[in-house]
């Protein structure tokens, strides 16, 4: 299986992609483990995803960084919301 | 409150606030109060590079779920007869309608409070993002405001 990852708004602009499918890594236990793996790509990835204000959703629900992650999840990274 | 009394729509098309307000009470003679909020794209005439257009982005699927959760929370807190939340996405111009929130109840206190609660929560918890463009074509993502989070934390 794999993870479906989505990027929105200024995060998408900074990374230059709206999403990707990533092969599951059995060592990942939390959402933050995935974030660290993406940051390890360096450049815009490290700069953007290490920012404190970045939010994460797991399966379309707001997630905390220490929430568990599982094979098949849909994970999204985005900046603070500005609707309304 | 019947489930069909909740309306949540995320759409690119405009909406008619009069029609939406009418829908909030026409089916239920126990409604004594309807409070509505209408949000618009506004000009910033005091700033350089005044905004001329805005693009609303959202997270399809999660946005609708987040709005449903916010409406459920409002219904838990106040005796509401009907609730409507409509939020537009895509390109919008100054003066365009962005968002409509309407709450119907027997009495005004619940309708007023729920309407304000829904807007405060929508602005800080529903995944929408605004990108502004100026007449010169420069674009910028709108920054989240701490005052919006403070308003949401009052509830």
TrEMBL record, chain A:
<dbReference type="InterPro" id="IPR044672">
    <property type="entry name" value="MOCS2A"/>
</dbReference>
<dbReference type="GO" id="GO:1990133">
    <property type="term" value="C:molybdopterin adenylyltransferase complex"/>
</dbReference>
<keyword id="KW-0547">Nucleotide-binding</keyword>
<dbReference type="InterPro" id="IPR016155">
    <property type="entry name" value="Mopterin_synth/thiamin_S_b"/>
</dbReference>
<dbReference type="InterPro" id="IPR003749">
    <property type="entry name" value="ThiS/MoaD-like"/>
</dbReference>
<comment type="similarity">
    <text>Belongs to the MoaD family.</text>
</comment>
<dbReference type="InterPro" id="IPR012675">
    <property type="entry name" value="Beta-grasp_dom_sf"/>
</dbReference>
<protein>
    <recommendedName>
        <fullName>Molybdopterin synthase sulfur carrier subunit</fullName>
    </recommendedName>
</protein>
<dbReference type="Pfam" id="PF02597">
    <property type="entry name" value="ThiS"/>
</dbReference>
<dbReference type="GO" id="GO:0006777">
    <property type="term" value="P:Mo-molybdopterin cofactor biosynthetic process"/>
</dbReference>
<dbReference type="GO" id="GO:0000166">
    <property type="term" value="F:nucleotide binding"/>
</dbReference>
């Amino acid at each position: 299986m794999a993870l479906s990852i989505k990027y929105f708004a200024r995060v998408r602009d900074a990374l230059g992609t709206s999403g990707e499918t990533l092969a599951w890594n059995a060592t990942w236990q939390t959402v933050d483990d995935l974030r660290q793996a993406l940051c390890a790509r360096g450049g815009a990835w490290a700069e953007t995803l290490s920012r404190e204000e970045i939010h994460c959703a797991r399966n379309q629900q707001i997630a905390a960084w220490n929430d568990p992650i599982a094979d098949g999840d849909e994970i999204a990274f985005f900046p603070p919301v500005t609707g309304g | 409150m019947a489930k069909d009394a909740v309306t949540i729509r995320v759409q690119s098309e405009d909406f008619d606030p009069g029609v939406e307000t009418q829908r909030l009470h026409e089916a239920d003679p126990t409604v004594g109060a309807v409070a509505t909020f209408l949000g618009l794209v506004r000009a910033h005439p005091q700033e350089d590079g005044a905004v001329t257009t805005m693009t609303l982005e959202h997270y399809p699927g999660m946005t609708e779920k987040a709005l449903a959760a916010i409406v459920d929370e409002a219904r838990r807190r106040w005796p509401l007869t009907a609730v409507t939340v409509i939020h537009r996405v895509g390109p919008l111009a100054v003066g365009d309608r962005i968002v409509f929130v309407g709450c119907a109840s027997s009495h005004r206190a619940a309708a007023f409070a729920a309407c304000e609660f829904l807007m405060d929560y929508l602005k800080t918890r529903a995944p929408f993002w605004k990108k502004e463009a100026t007449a010169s074509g420069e674009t910028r993502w709108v920054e989240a405001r701490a005052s919006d989070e403070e308003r949401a934390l009052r509830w």
